[in-house]
Amino acid sequence: MDIVRIGLDLAKTVFQVHGVGSDDHTILRKTLRRDAVVPFFAQLPPCLVGMEACSGSHFWARMLTELGHEVRLISPQFVAPYVKSNKNDCNDAEAICETVGRPSMRFVPQKITGATGDTIRPPHPAEVDLGPDAACEPDSRLAGRTWLCDRSRHQPPAPGPTADRGWAPQSRRRAGYDARTRDQNPGRVG
Question: Is 0.70 topped by the overall pTM?
Fold first, then answer.
Protein backbone atom coordinates (compact mmCIF):
# COMPACT_ATOMS: atom_id res chain seq x y z
CA MET A 1 0.00 0.00 0.00
CA ASP A 2 1.29 3.47 -0.88
CA ILE A 3 1.83 6.21 1.66
CA VAL A 4 -0.63 9.07 1.20
CA ARG A 5 0.30 11.40 4.07
CA ILE A 6 3.42 11.88 6.15
CA GLY A 7 3.86 13.79 9.38
CA LEU A 8 7.44 14.93 9.89
CA ASP A 9 8.53 16.14 13.32
CA LEU A 10 11.66 18.27 13.00
CA ALA A 11 14.44 18.47 15.56
CA LYS A 12 18.15 19.29 15.63
CA THR A 13 19.59 15.90 14.74
CA VAL A 14 16.82 13.26 14.86
CA PHE A 15 13.60 13.55 12.83
CA GLN A 16 10.52 11.39 13.37
CA VAL A 17 8.41 10.26 10.40
CA HIS A 18 4.84 8.97 10.64
CA GLY A 19 3.08 7.83 7.44
CA VAL A 20 -0.46 6.65 6.75
CA GLY A 21 -2.13 5.05 3.74
CA SER A 22 -5.39 5.85 2.00
CA ASP A 23 -7.36 4.01 4.69
CA ASP A 24 -5.74 6.14 7.46
CA HIS A 25 -3.92 3.18 8.98
CA THR A 26 -0.32 3.62 10.06
CA ILE A 27 2.11 2.26 7.49
CA LEU A 28 5.35 3.91 8.52
CA ARG A 29 7.00 4.95 11.77
CA LYS A 30 10.64 5.76 11.42
CA THR A 31 13.38 7.81 13.07
CA LEU A 32 15.81 9.53 10.70
CA ARG A 33 19.08 11.33 11.24
CA ARG A 34 19.46 14.72 9.58
CA ASP A 35 21.66 13.45 6.74
CA ALA A 36 19.22 10.61 5.92
CA VAL A 37 16.10 12.77 5.44
CA VAL A 38 16.64 13.76 1.79
CA PRO A 39 17.65 10.25 0.57
CA PHE A 40 14.65 8.74 2.39
CA PHE A 41 12.14 11.14 0.79
CA ALA A 42 13.86 10.84 -2.61
CA GLN A 43 12.98 7.13 -2.80
CA LEU A 44 9.33 7.69 -1.76
CA PRO A 45 6.60 8.37 -4.33
CA PRO A 46 5.23 11.95 -4.16
CA CYS A 47 2.83 12.41 -1.26
CA LEU A 48 1.51 15.04 1.15
CA VAL A 49 4.04 15.97 3.86
CA GLY A 50 3.06 17.98 6.91
CA MET A 51 5.44 19.80 9.26
CA GLU A 52 5.07 22.19 12.17
CA ALA A 53 5.99 25.70 11.08
CA CYS A 54 9.29 26.89 12.54
CA SER A 55 12.42 28.55 11.24
CA GLY A 56 13.90 25.30 9.91
CA SER A 57 10.69 23.99 8.39
CA HIS A 58 10.85 26.43 5.46
CA PHE A 59 14.24 25.00 4.46
CA TRP A 60 12.95 21.42 4.64
CA ALA A 61 9.79 22.41 2.79
CA ARG A 62 11.89 23.70 -0.12
CA MET A 63 14.01 20.53 -0.11
CA LEU A 64 11.01 18.19 -0.15
CA THR A 65 9.15 20.27 -2.73
CA GLU A 66 12.12 19.90 -5.07
CA LEU A 67 11.74 16.12 -4.68
CA GLY A 68 8.12 16.34 -5.88
CA HIS A 69 6.27 16.14 -2.55
CA GLU A 70 3.44 18.50 -1.61
CA VAL A 71 4.49 20.19 1.64
CA ARG A 72 2.14 21.95 4.04
CA LEU A 73 3.31 23.85 7.10
CA ILE A 74 1.04 23.90 10.14
CA SER A 75 1.12 26.33 13.03
CA PRO A 76 2.06 24.46 16.24
CA GLN A 77 -1.04 25.73 18.02
CA PHE A 78 -3.19 23.73 15.60
CA VAL A 79 -1.18 20.53 16.09
CA ALA A 80 -1.28 20.50 19.91
CA PRO A 81 -4.92 19.34 20.23
CA TYR A 82 -4.18 16.21 18.19
CA VAL A 83 -1.35 14.90 20.42
CA LYS A 84 -2.92 11.80 21.96
CA SER A 85 -0.72 11.23 25.00
CA ASN A 86 2.64 12.37 26.35
CA LYS A 87 4.46 14.87 24.18
CA ASN A 88 7.38 13.21 22.42
CA ASP A 89 8.70 13.14 18.86
CA CYS A 90 6.75 10.03 17.82
CA ASN A 91 3.43 11.35 19.12
CA ASP A 92 4.11 14.77 17.60
CA ALA A 93 4.73 13.24 14.16
CA GLU A 94 1.49 11.27 14.45
CA ALA A 95 -0.41 14.43 15.45
CA ILE A 96 1.09 16.36 12.53
CA CYS A 97 0.04 13.58 10.15
CA GLU A 98 -3.49 13.68 11.56
CA THR A 99 -3.67 17.48 11.38
CA VAL A 100 -2.44 17.78 7.79
CA GLY A 101 -5.25 15.46 6.67
CA ARG A 102 -8.00 17.70 8.03
CA PRO A 103 -9.89 19.38 5.17
CA SER A 104 -10.58 22.66 7.00
CA MET A 105 -7.10 23.17 8.44
CA ARG A 106 -5.31 26.48 7.88
CA PHE A 107 -1.71 26.32 6.76
CA VAL A 108 1.27 28.65 6.96
CA PRO A 109 2.50 29.99 3.59
CA GLN A 110 5.88 28.63 2.61
CA LYS A 111 8.77 31.08 2.23
CA ILE A 112 10.54 30.84 -1.10
CA THR A 113 14.08 31.69 -2.13
CA GLY A 114 14.81 34.22 -4.84
CA ALA A 115 17.45 33.99 -7.57
CA THR A 116 20.00 35.77 -5.36
CA GLY A 117 19.55 33.28 -2.51
CA ASP A 118 17.62 35.61 -0.22
CA THR A 119 14.35 34.49 1.34
CA ILE A 120 11.22 36.04 -0.07
CA ARG A 121 8.13 35.99 2.08
CA PRO A 122 4.61 36.17 0.70
CA PRO A 123 3.12 39.68 0.97
CA HIS A 124 1.08 40.57 4.04
CA PRO A 125 -2.55 41.41 3.18
CA ALA A 126 -1.94 45.00 4.28
CA GLU A 127 0.91 45.27 1.77
CA VAL A 128 -1.18 44.27 -1.20
CA ASP A 129 -2.36 47.43 -2.92
CA LEU A 130 -5.93 46.84 -3.98
CA GLY A 131 -6.83 50.51 -4.32
CA PRO A 132 -9.38 52.49 -2.35
CA ASP A 133 -12.36 51.11 -4.29
CA ALA A 134 -11.47 47.41 -4.21
CA ALA A 135 -13.30 46.52 -1.02
CA CYS A 136 -15.97 49.21 -1.02
CA GLU A 137 -18.54 50.81 -3.24
CA PRO A 138 -17.14 53.31 -5.74
CA ASP A 139 -19.44 56.12 -4.52
CA SER A 140 -18.59 55.85 -0.86
CA ARG A 141 -16.08 58.55 0.09
CA LEU A 142 -16.10 57.47 3.71
CA ALA A 143 -15.11 53.90 2.81
CA GLY A 144 -12.26 55.18 0.63
CA ARG A 145 -11.05 57.47 3.39
CA THR A 146 -11.25 54.62 5.90
CA TRP A 147 -9.24 52.47 3.53
CA LEU A 148 -6.60 55.19 3.23
CA CYS A 149 -6.32 55.58 7.02
CA ASP A 150 -6.07 51.82 7.51
CA ARG A 151 -3.49 51.60 4.75
CA SER A 152 -1.34 54.34 6.28
CA ARG A 153 -1.18 52.49 9.61
CA HIS A 154 0.60 49.60 7.93
CA GLN A 155 3.29 51.69 6.26
CA PRO A 156 6.83 51.81 7.66
CA PRO A 157 7.95 55.15 9.09
CA ALA A 158 9.22 57.70 6.60
CA PRO A 159 13.00 57.82 6.16
CA GLY A 160 14.87 60.78 7.61
CA PRO A 161 15.46 62.31 11.02
CA THR A 162 13.04 61.38 13.77
CA ALA A 163 12.09 63.32 16.87
CA ASP A 164 14.71 62.87 19.59
CA ARG A 165 13.30 62.44 23.07
CA GLY A 166 16.41 63.66 24.90
CA TRP A 167 16.50 66.59 27.32
CA ALA A 168 17.25 69.06 24.53
CA PRO A 169 16.10 69.21 20.93
CA GLN A 170 18.45 67.76 18.39
CA SER A 171 19.10 71.19 16.87
CA ARG A 172 20.52 72.49 20.15
CA ARG A 173 22.67 69.42 20.57
CA ARG A 174 24.13 69.94 17.11
CA ALA A 175 24.89 73.55 17.96
CA GLY A 176 27.08 72.43 20.85
CA TYR A 177 24.44 72.70 23.57
CA ASP A 178 24.98 69.44 25.41
CA ALA A 179 25.59 68.25 28.97
CA ARG A 180 28.96 70.01 29.17
CA THR A 181 27.64 73.43 28.20
CA ARG A 182 24.29 73.35 29.99
CA ASP A 183 25.99 73.85 33.38
CA GLN A 184 27.77 76.89 32.00
CA ASN A 185 24.53 78.44 30.74
CA PRO A 186 23.18 80.77 33.44
CA GLY A 187 19.73 80.94 31.86
CA ARG A 188 19.12 77.20 32.26
CA VAL A 189 17.54 76.04 35.51
CA GLY A 190 17.83 72.39 36.61
Answer: no
